[in-house]
Write a structure and sequence with these properties.
Largest sheet: 5 strands, antiparallel
Mean pLDDT: 68
Structural class: alpha+beta
Number of domains: 2
Radius of gyration: 20 Å
Keywords: Antimicrobial, Bacteriolytic enzyme, Glycosidase, Host cytoplasm, Hydrolase
Organism: Triparma verrucosa
Number of strands: 14
Catalytic activity: Hydrolysis of (1->4)-beta-linkages between N-acetylmuramic acid and N-acetyl-D-glucosamine residues in a peptidoglycan and between N-acetyl-D-glucosamine residues in chitodextrins
Order of helices and strands: EHEEEEEHEHHHHHEEEEEEE
Protein name: Lysozyme
CATH architecture of the largest domain: Orthogonal Bundle
GO biological process, one term: peptidoglycan catabolic process
Length: 267
């Protein structure tokens, strides 16, 4: 993949889904040649093709895929063809919803986001509203993408970080180590928190959900079993998932540099 994507902008209605977006989708959706049930109990095959009605059947590939069951198999090439068909509706969704000029990477990131959360959720999101209003800075875009963590799973967190990075980049994700470093941008973190493990081949990260080695993770003062470990600003900080000054179980509270910042982890 070339690392020279242009930062030029044009109307969203003129874009097709680009290679960077396709790479992101295939990486996070993952491929299965045979049927399985996803986390919501829905039969799925290929690159996240959900079997929910008779219209989801794939007779051209000899695959039965509907709410009653799923049988047959796909090659990766067939899976990518099916993914292209599945994405088409979300390409139209983004084309119709975005009223300002965007880059190819911004368009791709928005299509990936809409594909995952649904067209209706995308159309009603603060992310889209601020984009169309011209008030969406790179920092705010990162926050708005990463708010959407249904179930607060690590996989979704990595996906949202990667989408937000693609949105703010003019390059392919993973082109260089430097392109992987992004600020997590809590209000009080002053750019000290970074997250990078979503980038292919770039694993060094000062913001780690997985690197806590003892007692459930971080430094003193966190309730065991309810923390993540933050390495930032030269030390470790506790990330309590239900801090006293955060409003719900779908938040974390970061103690960093003497201040606290809350982040909504679920939409």
């Amino acid at each position: 993949m070339p690392c020279d994507y242009s930062c030029s902008t044009k109307s969203a209605s003129s874009y097709s889904f680009g290679n960077n977006g396709l790479d992101l989708l295939t990486a996070f959706e993952g491929f299965s040649s045979t049927c399985y049930k996803d986390t919501e109990g829905i039969y799925t095959i290929g690159y996240g093709h959900a079997c929910q009605s008779s219209s989801d059947d794939l007779p051209q590939y000899g695959v039965t895929c509907n709410s009653s069951g799923c049988s047959g198999s796909l090659t990766e090439a067939q899976g990518k063809a099916v993914l292209g068909d599945d994405v088409a509706g979300f390409v139209s969704c983004v084309r119709n919803a975005v009223s300002v000029a965007v880059t190819q990477n911004q368009f791709d990131a928005l299509v990936s986001f809409a594909f995952n959360v649904g067209c209706g959720a995308f159309q009603s999101s603060t992310l889209l509203r601020e984009l169309n209003a011209g008030t969406l800075t790179d920092q705010e875009a990162q926050y708005q993408f990463t708010r959407w963590h249904s179930g607060c799973t690590a996989g979704l967190e990595r996906r949202r970080f990667t989408e937000s990075q693609l949105f703010s980049s003019c390059q392919s994700i993973g082109c260089s180590a430097s392109s992987c470093s992004i600020s997590y941008n809590y209000p009080d973190c002053s750019g000290a928190c970074q997250y990078c493990s979503a980038c292919g081949g770039c694993k060094s990260s000062s913001y780690s959900f997985d690197g806590c080695s003892s007692g459930g993770g971080g430094g003193g003062g966190c309730d065991e079993g309810c923390i993540d470990c933050i390495e930032g600003g030269g030390g470790k900080a506790c990330a309590e998932k239900a801090c006293a000054d955060c409003s719900s179980d779908c938040t974390i509270c970061i103690e960093n540099g003497g201040g606290k910042a809350c982040e909504e982890r679920c939409q």
